[in-house]
Amino acid sequence: MPRSMAPPPSGEFSIRLTKSFSASPTEKIEIIGEPNRFATIKVTNHVGAQNQTIIAKEGQIQAEDVNELLSLVRPLEGLPTNPSKDVYGLDTRVILSTFEVQWDNGEEVEGAEAATNPTEENKETFKGVVDSIQALARMKAKERTS
Question: What 3-state class would DSSP assign to 42?
Answer without folding.
Answer: strand
